Target: N-acetyl-gamma-glutamyl-phosphate reductase
Amino acid sequence: MSAPVIFIDGDQGTTGLLIHQRLHGRTDIKLLTLDPADRKNAQRRAEAINASDIAILCLPDAAAREAVAAIVNPAVRVIDASSAHRTHADWTYGFPELTQEQAEKIAQAKRVTNPGCYPTGALGLLRPLVQAGLVPADYPISIHAVSGYSGGGRPAVEKYEGAQASDAPAYLAYGLQLAHKHPPEIQQHAGLAHRPIFTPAYGAFRQGIVLTVPIALRLLEKGVDASALHAQLSRHYADAAHVQVSPLQASSALEYLDPQALNGTNDMQLSVFVNEKEGHVLLAAVLDNLGKGASGAAVQNLDLMLGSAGV
Model:
């Protein structure tokens, strides 16, 4: 049997390059690449997609939709790393740890939409708690996250690494109109009744994320405390290879969270912090926005679709 053909459309962008690096040297697949002169040729790209077994789209949203529309070969399967299809009912959401059944759904899917980097952290924390009824679906969720500047794509990388890098800000809050594209994705896949408030920021480091969700225990059902929230997260991820939950006692000893702690991996670390006197809990996630938040997740989904073990 010949090796499955994988085509990365957009393999010169940040995510595409990293996916290519992660797949380089593998003998169980065949990577289909285009000559540099053909990368912007719509016809050649369409031919490559239709000649592949699995196409990975690392494109802007509009271009990703166009690429999908160009598929005429019914055997072609797709992983879309853009945000074009993340709330689409006909696409399988590519967060394998979302539910106990999600990995198998991805393995069988024809169309898989990769999660956003921020939603990966938010959903990793919220979905198990909302699904279990510990956090009400109508809880007024607020999410704050700081990412490395690579999350802003090539323009941000150029700002921080180019000729004018000395002028780049150490910290940049954005999305101030509260209309970021990620809240609908988070709301749908977390099972929330209302759109969460999301406030993102970039820091003067290349990659990595710290994302936090504050919870007031007085707004939860009586008897639901930090230990109950932590226990549910621990149960949910007990068998997960790429999501770990820090022990509650270990979290209580931490002074800070390093957004770069998991850079270069496909892992995510979840923590629960508590101020028992005030009844305040802080849920936190650390991940690599270019790893579990992008290229690592895409390769994890690819391996599921290929039937690879240990994913």
About this structure: The domain at 5-115+294-306 is CATH 3.40.50.720 (Rossmann fold). The first strand starts at residue 5 and ends at 9. The mean pLDDT is 95.
